[in-house]
Write a structure and sequence with these properties.
The structure is a single chain. It is built from 1 helix and 34 strands. The chain is mostly beta strands. Strands 26-32-31-28-29 form a 5-stranded mixed beta sheet, with no helix packed on it. The longest helix is centred in the N-terminal third of the chain and has 7 residues. The protein is rod-shaped and about 185 Å long. The chain starts with a helix and ends in a 13-residue tail after the last strand. The relative contact order is 0.08. The N terminus is likely disordered.
């Protein structure tokens, strides 16, 4: 089958030489082996690219064929180094969407199956970085991208971390960053495209202690730094049972599933978005209703006749002044029947006074007051104070003929008669 046929079969070959003039052959020489390689190299790898550089790995010593125009013919070939790495920098960066097809050809001429990558020149979206107190940095970004974190303002990342499959990233500095440190963050996708930067400023200042309103146990509420997390502890073990968030106005509220009993000490702390906790604030649940308030006086301060109005009396003042006593700090509601005439807060001595904003209608009125303490407990109703508003002028009196010794006549019962004798 000849030497070539033997080689193709991977056989050992013996060397021979021609004989003398008689045309004979000499004794065969030593055999030698010709190795045969018909195995294609493994599929090469090609890294994601932005079109500026192409790179990857393949069988050491093989040649990479790079096809960038889709005609199936390599436009350029580059060698794979001894470490199995290869790289190529196009004269002009490849445009977005270019499909790059890569094959590897080993020294025996065997060609691998192809692999591809698509040029990506689109920068990732701006990453997010959460408020921080300097102990931990975290945020979100394109999954698989690399976050560059610059904490000294020189524009060069001091550390890099990888964004997980869920799009979150975190980094804990060896030493907590100080107050005011500006942290600049960028994201670089696997193709090498860099996002615009974003920043956060380290905040190590604890928020002010929250304000906790007095409570009767049905609702716990107050104010705190807007956006902060409010932690509420009602059993005194130092561990919050519930957390709520202060709204944009700083207000927060929580309604327990079961009303808290009288005397429960509610302790509240807040943690700002950077993670700084405040000092605690407390309130003690008060479920005891205040005593019934009193109406001490009703005063007519309009018209020709003014002064105190007696219970059951009549007045032409449609807006008389009501006053009395109630639990200090409680809110007093003045009622005519079931209609509120207005509210007022009893002062530190328990005194209150109210002149209605709207006029009372003519006719009888049953006036009562109630008081609600700062914890929200309502009092019993006060005793009723009856009065009548009368704004209708009496009819003209009748004056009897007189000889000058006596002046007399008739008028509306209970009215005051004024007598002018000098004109």
């Amino acid at each position: 089958m000849g030497i070539l046929g033997a080689a193709a079969a991977g056989l050992g070959i013996a060397a021979v030489s021609g004989g003398g003039g008689g045309g004979g052959f000499s004794v065969p020489g030593p055999a030698f082996s010709l190795p045969v390689d018909t195995i294609a190299p493994s599929v090469p790898t090609v890294n994601p690219t932005s079109g500026r550089t192409l790179s990857g790995t393949a069988e050491p010593g093989s040649t990479i064929g790079i096809d960038t125009n889709g005609d199936g013919i390599p436009d350029v070939k580059v060698p794979v180094d001894a470490g199995g790495k290869w790289t190529h920098t196009p004269t002009t960066p490849l445009p977005e969407g270019t499909v790059v097809t890569i094959t590897a050809t080993d020294p025996a001429g065997n060609i691998s199956p192809p692999t591809t990558t698509t040029v990506d020149t689109t920068a990732p979206s701006v990453p997010t970085v959460n408020p921080s107190n300097g102990t931990t940095l975290s945020g979100t970004a394109e999954p698989g991208s690399t976050i560059g974190i610059d904490t000294n303002g020189d524009g060069t990342p001091d550390v890099k971390v990888t964004v997980d499959a869920g799009g979150t990233w975190t980094h804990t500095p060896a030493t907590a960053l100080p107050e005011g440190t500006v942290v600049t963050v960028t994201a670089t996708d696997p193709a090498g495209n860099i996002s615009p930067s974003t920043t956060t400023t380290v905040d190590t200042t604890a928020p002010a202690a929250p304000i906790v309103n007095p409570s009767n146990g049905t609702t716990v509420s107050g104010t705190a730094e807007p956006g902060s997390s409010v932690a509420i502890d009602t059993n005194g073990d130092g561990t919050p049972e519930v957390k709520v968030t202060a709204d944009s106005d700083g207000k927060w509220t929580h309604t327990p599933a079961t009303a808290l009993p009288d005397g429960t000490v509610v302790s509240v702390t807040v943690t700002d978005p950077a993670g700084n906790p405040s000092a605690p604030a407390t309130t003690t649940v008060d479920t005891r209703a205040p005593a019934a308030p009193t109406i001490g006086a009703v005063t007519d301060d309009a018209g020709s006749v003014t002064g105190p109005i007696l219970a059951g009396g009549t007045t032409d003042d449609t807006r008389p002044t009501f006053s009395g006593t109630a639990e200090a700090g409680s809110t007093v509601n003045v009622l005519s029947g079931t209609n509120s005439l207005g509210t007022v807060v009893a002062d530190s001595d328990g005194k209150w006074s109210l002149t209605p904003a709207l006029a009372l209608a003519a006719g009888p009125h049953a006036i009562t007051v109630t008081a609600t303490d700062p914890a929200g407990n309502p009092s019993p109703q006060s005793a009723v104070f009856n009065l009548t508003v009368d704004t209708t002028a009496p009819t003209a009196p009748i004056v009897n003929p007189s000889n000058g010794t006596t002046v007399s006549g008739t008028a509306e019962p209970g009215s005051s008669v004024a007598i002018d004798t000098n004109g």
